[in-house]
Structure formats: C-alpha cells, structure tokens
Design goal:
This protein is of the alpha/beta class. The chain has 7 helices and 9 strands; from the N terminus they run αβαββαββαββββααα. The model has no long low-confidence stretch (mean pLDDT about 95). The structure holds iron/sulfur cluster. The site of iron/sulfur cluster has 12 residues, from loops.
Length: about 220
C-alpha cells in the first residue's frame, strides 16, 4: 500500500495542489489592497475563477505555465491547498471583530500561524483557535483544536471533517499561551516523526493508542 501511495497517490495530490492558487492571509485577515491585487490578477487572467470556502482560492487556469505566471502576478504569499504541510491556522474573529473572546486567542493564532504554517508533515494538518466555547473556527473537527476558557486554553487532538469526520479529544486544559505553543510543538514533532505518509494525526493516535500518545506528549510538557 505504501508503494502505491508514494508512487501514484502522493504525486497526484501534489500536482493537483499546483492547479490552485491559495493566498495566505494570516489569521484570515485581508486588506483592501489585497483585494485589489486579487481583482487585478483575475482581470489579467480572465479564465480564473474565485471561490470562498472559508479560504479564498483562485483556480480554473488549465495551462500550467500560465498558472505560474498568474501566481507570480498576484504578488501575495500562497500555500498548498492539498498535500503534505500544515495549513494556515484557522483563527476565529474573537479579539479582532468579535468581543466574546475569553483570551487573547487572535494573537495566539497569529503566533501559531507564523511558527507552523507551511511546515512539511506526513499529510495535512490543520490547527484551529477559537476565542470561546462557541468554536466558530470549528476546533473540534481539526487535527489540533485550541479553545479559550476563562481559566486558560484547552487543547484537543485528532479531529477531522470531510469524508471520515472525527471529533477531537481533549488532552490538556487551563494552559497559558506559552504552554499551548510548547504543547503544539510537541504534537507536531510527534506527527513528523511517527506519522506515515497520508496518515492524519487522529489515525496516528488510534494506531499508537491515546495513552501512549499522551504519555509522550503531555507528561513531558
Ligand atoms: S468562537 Fe467565540 S470569540 Fe470566536 S468568533 Fe465565535 S463567538 Fe466570537
């Protein structure tokens, strides 16, 4: 199975990801100047289509050379929409536009994004931060979900949406910002070292056992 994954499935996913241009806006925040750049590039490459699914994606150019030219013309940082890296961190609007946040979760999300976004890993890994238990950034269906409470942050692991949805399990609570950053780093390192190609974090945790995972991650934190 791993030969099939490495030989056929992984290259297909990697080439698929090149078809789409996904600007990276840390914290999901963009300016009028960013919007102008997107409008300009879409006018210059009129076969482009724009799509928002929470993230904004530019796609529809079938010629790879023209797609590269479009990416360069855009002049914004981009990320891979498919494949083998940590995605831009999902951060709710708490502390930016919404005042229900119970911690400075927006700053934490930006720090996590700066530290981890784009890092190569065995498959995709999504980190989400929410400013209160309403969970607008959907932390319980992400690989690592961080939720603010009055007494600190809780950290949840192993969630996923899509075809095989999973609810993340809580592994720590009452953490401050530094403790969250340290814990996420340990989880990412564990995933880097122990994950198999195309294995999501939750599947890896099932394979090694939650107690083993926590013994490695939480006990040392
Ligand atoms: S999760 Fe809470 S703080 Fe964040 S946007 Fe939703 S209501 Fe606001």
């Amino acid at each position: 199975m791993n030969i099939i994954v490495e030989t056929f499935i992984k290259p297909n996913i990697e080439s698929e990801s090149k078809k789409f241009i996904a600007p990276h806006f840390p914290g999901g925040v963009l300016t009028s100047a960013d919007l102008r750049k997107i409008a300009d590039v879409c006018e210059k490459f009129p076969e482009n289509k724009l799509k928002i699914n929470g993230d904004l994606t530019i796609g529809g150019i079938t010629n790879p050379k023209r797609n590269d030219e479009c990416r360069q013309s855009l002049g914004l940082p981009t990320y891979s929409v498919a494949g083998f890296s940590i995605r831009p961190v999902k951060v709710c609007a708490g502390g930016y536009m919404c005042d229900n946040n119970l911690q400075d979760s927006f700053s934490l999300g930006l720090k996590l994004d700066k530290m981890f976004s784009g890092k190569p890993v065995p498959f995709k890994l999504i980190i989400s931060v929410s400013g209160c238990p309403r969970g607008c950034s959907e932390p319980l269906v992400k690989d690592i979900g961080i939720i603010s409470a009055r007494n600190g942050y809780s950290v949840h692991v192993g969630g996923a949406a899509g075809g095989k949805p999973r609810i993340a399990q809580k592994i720590a609570e009452k953490l401050n910002e530094e403790q969250v950053m340290a814990l996420v780093e340990k989880i990412v390192t564990f995933y880097e070292l122990r994950g198999k190609t195309m294995e999501r974090l939750g599947v890896l945790i099932d394979r090694v056992g939650m107690e083993n995972f926590k013994a490695t991650i939480v006990s040392g934190s």
